């Protein structure tokens, strides 16, 4: 019979089994970061913070934290999100067309269509605006002025390659007018100041950004580039109603890194679907003047792919860095 000493010696020679670690099922063991690649207070930041309470209610145990990683017009934050582990603990707020146009214009460390598309929240149509005392009343007047005075009509946008800038380029191409003079601004505040001060004939920006100035009677809209009149601006005709089938604006949603596991993606999609249909969320969005346009999963991806294809064609015909 082996001695106790021999038994212990034999046990000591056996490899030690690794301890069994208990891992909490997603999303319970740490906060979920939503990277907002813009400073606090902007449209993308507002969208992300608005949707979080509804998401948290749909994902028991989830904790969310917004991380603002501004830089290079959103590129820096999207690169961080693209490189993150696809474990459900990193999401990113998006703004399209910027997400898809940056890789056309410059080198980026992300591939836009490789993201996992979770949900779109907002579709904010673009519009063209003039000061209240402008002689321009509609798109027909603008076209006539641009043709009569080539290069003398100036318009402002929120930056080269912004959705506002791309709206004007597409409109010029569709209407067959010579390029107007572009004045890019670093945000809506200086743009609106220049428009109201008479330094620009036309301003290009999103319809939600125009609400306060429209209600105060300081500006008028020549048209909104929406498929149908947005409820927030029901008196403004669409481009389509004026003979130009042009739909353009900025969509804002949420993506995850490439390769997100199907079980996590499915739970996130379900949570967004429920949150976006909640009456309390819808009322709050209406109060803030946010044009909701929910798209979930594959439907969101399909819309971004369509947008990317159209913009790539525009880039090949008229690169906007040269505009």
| Largest beta-sheet details | 10 strands, mixed
Give the SSE string. Answer: HEHEHEHEHEHEHEHEEHHEH
Supply the number of helical segments.
11
**Which word captures the global form?**
globular
Tally of separate domains:
2
| Rg on CA atoms, Å | 25 Å
Average pLDDT over all residues: 89
**CATH top level label of the largest domain:** Alpha Beta
Task: Kindly report the name of the CATH homologous superfamily of the largest domain.
Answer: Bordetella uptake gene, domain 1
The third-level CATH topology of the largest domain is D-Maltodextrin-Binding Protein, domain 2
Query: Distance between the terminal alpha carbons, to the nearest Å?
Result: 93 Å
Residues in β-strands, percent: 15-25%
Helix amount: 25-40%
Which class best fits the helix and strand makeup?
Answer: alpha/beta
What's the architecture of the largest domain in CATH terms? 3-Layer(aba) Sandwich
Low-confidence stretches: 1-23
Report on this model:
The protein has 11 helices and 10 strands. Strands 1, 2, 3, 4, 5, 6, 7, 8, 9 and 10 form a 10-stranded mixed sheet that branches. β5 (154-157), α6 (163-175) and β6 form a beta-alpha-beta unit. The chain has 323 residues and is an alpha/beta fold. The N and C termini lie far apart (93 Å). Residues 1-23 have low confidence and may be disordered. It has helices at 4-13, 43-58, 75-83, 98-105, 139-148, 163-175, 188-196, 207-215, 262-276, 279-288, 298-317; strands at 32-36, 64-68, 90-96, 116-131, 154-157, 181-184, 202-206, 219-224, 249-256, 292-296. The chain is 40% helix and 20% strand. It folds into 2 domains: 32-123 and 250-317, Bordetella uptake gene, domain 1 (D-Maltodextrin-Binding Protein, domain 2, 3-Layer(aba) Sandwich), CATH 3.40.190.150; 124-248, D-Maltodextrin-Binding Protein, domain 2 (3-Layer(aba) Sandwich), CATH 3.40.190.
């Amino acid at each position: 019979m082996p001695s106790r000493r021999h038994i212990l010696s034999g046990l000591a020679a056996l490899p030690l089994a690794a301890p069994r670690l208990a891992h909490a099922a997603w999303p319970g063991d740490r906060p979920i970061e939503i990277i907002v690649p813009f400073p606090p207070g902007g449209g993308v930041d507002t969208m992300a913070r608005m949707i979080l309470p509804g998401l948290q209610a749909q994902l028991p145990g989830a904790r969310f934290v917004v991380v603002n990683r501004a830089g290079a017009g959103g590129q820096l934050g999207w690169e961080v999100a693209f490189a993150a582990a696809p474990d459900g603990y990193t999401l990113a707020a998006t703004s399209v067309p910027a997400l898809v146009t940056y890789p056309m214009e410059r080198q980026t460390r992300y591939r836009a269509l490789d993201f996992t598309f979770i949900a779109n929240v907002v579709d904010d149509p673009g519009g063209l605006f003039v000061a209240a005392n402008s002689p321009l009343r509609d798109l027909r007047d603008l076209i006539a002025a641009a043709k009569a005075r080539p290069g003398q009509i100036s318009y402002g946008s929120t930056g080269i390659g912004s959705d506002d800038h791309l709206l004007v380029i597409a409109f010029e191409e569709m209407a067959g007018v010579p390029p107007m003079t572009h004045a890019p601004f670093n945000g809506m505040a200086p743009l609106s100041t220049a428009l109201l001060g008479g330094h620009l004939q036309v301003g290009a920006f999103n319809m939600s950004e125009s609400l306060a100035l429209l209600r105060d009677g300081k500006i008028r809209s020549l048209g909104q580039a929406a498929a149908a009149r947005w409820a927030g601006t029901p008196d403004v005709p669409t481009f389509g109603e004026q003979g130009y089938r042009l739909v353009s604006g900025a969509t804002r949603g949420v993506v995850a890194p490439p390769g997100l596991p199907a079980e996590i993606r499915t739970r996130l999609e379900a949570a967004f679907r429920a949150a976006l249909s909640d009456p309390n969320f819808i009322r709050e969005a209406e109060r803030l003047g946010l044009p909701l346009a929910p798209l979930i999963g594959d439907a969101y991806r399909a819309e971004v792919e369509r947008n990317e294809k159209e913009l790539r064609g525009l880039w090949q015909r008229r690169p906007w860095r040269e505009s």
